[in-house]
Amino acid sequence: MTKLESKVPEGPLHEKWDNRKHHYGLVSPNNKKKHTIIVVGTGLAGASSAASLAEMGYKVKNFCISDSPRRAHSIAAQGGINANKNYPNDGDSTWGLFYDTIKGGDYRSREANTYRLAQLSSNIIDQAVAQGVPFAREYGGELATRSFGGALVSRTFYARGQTGQQLLLGAYGALMRQVDGGNCEMFAHREMLDLVMVDGRARGIITRNLFTGALERHAADAVVLCTGGYGRAYFLSTNAVNSNATAAWRCHKRGALMANPSYVQIHPTCIPASTEYQSKRTLMSESLRNDGRIWVPKNKEDVGKPPNSIPPEDRDYYLERKYPAFGNLVPRDVASRNAHYMVKQGYGVGPLRNAVYLDFSTAIKEKGKAAIEAKYGNLFDMYQKITDENPYEQPMRIFPAVHYVMGGLWVDYDLMSNLPGLFVAGEANFSDHGANRLGASALMQGLADGYFIVPASVSNYLATERFNLTPVKDDQAEFKAVEKDVRANIDELLKLNELALKKPAEERRTVIDIYSELGKILWDDVGIERTAEGLEHALEAIPRLREEFYSGVLIPGSDDTFNKYLEIAGRVADFLEVGELMARDALDRDESCGCHFRADHQTPKGEALRNDEDFAYVAAWEYKGRGEKPVLHKEELEFEFVELKQRSYE
Amino acid sequence: MTLNLKVWRQSGADSAGSLEAVVAHGISPEMSFLEMLDLVNERLVHDGKLPIEFDSDCREGICGTCSLTINGKAHGPDLGTAVCQLHMRSFSDGDTIVIEPFRARAFPVVKDLVVDRAALDRIIQAGGYNSVTTGPHADANATLISKPDADAAFEAATCIGCGACVAACPNSSASLFTSAKLTQFAKLPQGQPERDIRTIRMVTTMDDEGFGNCSNIGECEAVCPKGISINNISRMRRDYVRAVLRTGGRVTES
Q: What are the residue boundaries of the Fumarate reductase/succinate dehydrogenase flavoprotein-like C-terminal domain, all occurrences included (chain A) (predicted)?
């Protein structure tokens, strides 16, 4: 039985991280170059981890699924990054950022992790500015900030609507500097397909070169996984086409526990779907809610009318009506649920009646078009390109879409999974956001993990475990055995195509077709609003779909060349298991909290109703085989410093 | 709509390629160009044929992965747009559309429409950063940066590294790409200590990677999905001369 030890340090909340750092072991400068560390992923967490570890003198091998590390999906984050600098003098503090984050997460995260995140936020801004990240500035030359959902202070730093891009390019620059200096070896267009354990420790990975199809073995003293979230399980999401769960899921299959897989954030402001062939949804930054007002027509007969012809008194600004204090700036889960509710009640607008309005006319009247353009120009352009509608002249149409997952591999305070030597950072871990993440906190967490936590905790692992880390070579038995498993896996997929061709033509389905059906099941049953019946349905439908997948599915081409369908097939095979675990976790958590909204657990006002007595724990699942029931391990959450309250944004 | 596609098919870097005709029928104007290709591929796979390989990732115009030349134009007919943001409403029923990869000697074809742009990473590797280490730094507001400078640095920094500028240039020059990164740092006080060495190293690497020279044609600026200005190239040239004069052209490895 795996015992979950969070390893949270003793002492007052604000001293915990310092205490831990003081006790961390250090590796001597001579010895650092003798250690190899594998970092998988080049997003904010991956690039910053790899760069920082290489700067310290370790030999780093960095793996990237794209053709260049700069393409990692962190690049698409638009709105900003939180930090408790209190530059606007509006009463912000470390405690304030911590409290908003833990409350925003509906009290389902570890106090100590969340507090550390708030503590490190300020250093991230200093780090990024030193790197030359061009944040927005005021005329006096100081940094500009704006407000984001779930907070009453202005603590979000931004670079127009491209904050993720600029922060990622900062980290990418730091990484390329280490590649140039020879401390980091870059492996682009590589997909991690398995983890290699030696003597109970994570000691390497197997990758596939996506250009040539070749399998490769890589050995190291520690593995840092920064491979993002599993939101693409829904097929339609704001995540990039190549975002996937495979690296994390294969670690899960090797024994790493998967925590809170049902915590999925549905972002409130995305462009609604327009055709059935849509490949992904596009996010419109939440920062738009600073100046945009969300409404639907008060009268159902108005939903088809042009929005500008509906007079103000016939509009229902439902967020401002229901939440007068936070108004349009309520947290994401609350905003999404309300939009979903309005559309379900028949107030949806747009050709498919699947959206609500986000209206800038008031802001343009008050602040002028130029001011709005300076703040959101690129977002407005993007909207216009996709929809062919001009948001300066008519309101945007928006609807929620899957965006981010708070769940992920279980890690302790040191960001190490239950497998010794396997560290997990960024969205790939379950750590700091609880059941809902506040806007502008993903960039903060990715970089706090990568720049400041992973380098210290991995060093400590190497220092304290150095006598247990026997030398390993990538040609020893354990590596060969895992490579053989990976090979067998790919061969199994290729065989599915042969099986499919034996089916009658009208029964043949492509891997994309199966994938899109999985997405529909998850969106309907494990989406914004969940019910026991829906989740039970998902638990029947997903294994059935998986059976169909393994009975034969069209996967064209061979494995010795660039083959996108084959890549996707491997990821879909994993999503078909991830999805089932998400539904199981959601069914098992018989309460509502944050983004996990069970229709049978809500307050009279329709808010998520927690059950702290029975469910104030992290649900960490242990893999028992494809289609086998996983085993639940619980890490009880202890709240020493904050009082658990019903969230209210009224 | 029905469209007559002529698509570049090439099985690998060393094999010869050719244009192949594919008919795309039942295309809705709301679809993006890449969604149209997705649909074409699904039908090809159902017919037991190999799908058209192309690469894409974020599909919202920011990651720079997609790299198609459409009717001879990098990223297609719409200005200021990566091909993932190009929608089929830009075409008419019955149009013939020629789809090719981004072509340049420094971008070898991987398969069909997929090219390898690692050469751009190697230009960045040669100095496209400030050499600062992770750790404590001065408070972010300790250095004031005028808004126009910050904005100019930002404008240059919006480059997504797609390589359209290279594909569009008759000389396959990477000058717009390289100069945009140089401008970002040249406009910021943090970028000054390494300004000379950065300029010399990045320009030299650009030449070594097999990119051609700039001869002021301006195609790069015209196709850039982020509207990055060719003025950056003039700036780069001035800085290069300045750097050579100040350092004697000698650079020590950073």
A: 516-649
Condensed to tens digits (0 to 9), the pLDDT of residues A167-223 reads 999 999 999 999 999 999 999 999 999 999 999 999 999 999 999 999 999 999 999
A55 touches chain B (CB under 8 A): yes
Structural contact between residues A646 and A602, judged by C-beta atoms closer than 8 angstroms: no
- CATH class of the domain whose range is B3-111: alpha beta
Place A646 in a pLDDT band, splitting at 50, 70 and 90: confident
Q: Determine the Cα–Cα distance for residues A239 and A63; give it in Å rounded to an integer.
A: 19
Q: Scanning every residue of chain B, which has its alpha carbon at the shortest distance from the alpha carbon of A87?
A: B141
Rounded distance, CA A631 to CA A633, Å?
Answer: 7
Q: Closest chain A residue to B67 measured between Cα atoms? A: A67
Complex ipTM value: 0.97
* Of A454, A463, A476, A32, nearest in space to A218 by CA: A476
Q: Which domains does chain A have, with CATH numbers?
A: 34-263+406-465 (3.50.50.60), 266-402 (3.90.700.10), 477-610 (1.20.58.100)
Q: Please, which residues 184-203 of chain A have a Cβ atom closer than 8 Å to chain B?
A: 186, 188
- Tokens linked to A566: 């084959």
Interface probe for A, chosen from B9, B62, B145 (most Cβ of A below 10 Å), is: B62
Q: Which of residues 545-564 of A touch B (CB under 8 A)?
A: 554, 556-557, 561-564
Q: What is the pLDDT of residue A449?
A: 98
Subunit contact B144:A142, Cβ cutoff 8 A: yes
Residue B252: pLDDT over 80: no
CA distance A177 to chain B (A): 6
Instruction: Sketch the domain layout of chain B as residue ranges.
Output: 3-111, 117-130+143-247
Q: pLDDT digit string (tens) for A572-618?
A: 999 999 999 999 999 999 999 999 999 999 998 888 999 999 999 99
For residue B160, which residues of chain A lie inside 8 Å, CB to CB? 75, 165
Domain B117-130+143-247 falls under CATH 3.40.50.720? no
